[in-house]
Amino acid sequence: MIRLAQTVYDSEGFRLAADFEIARHSFSAVLGPSGAGKSTLLSLIAGFLPLTLGHVIIDGVETDGVPPAARPVSMIFQDHNAFAHLDSWTNVALGISPSLDLAENDRAAVDEALARVGLSALARKRPGEMSGGEVQRIALARALVRQKPILLLDEPFAALDPGLRQQMLALVNELHQERRLTTLMVTHEPKDARAVADQVIFIDGGEARPPAPTGRFFSGKQDKAVSRYLGT
Question: Does residue 65 have a pLDDT over 80?
Answer without folding.
Answer: yes
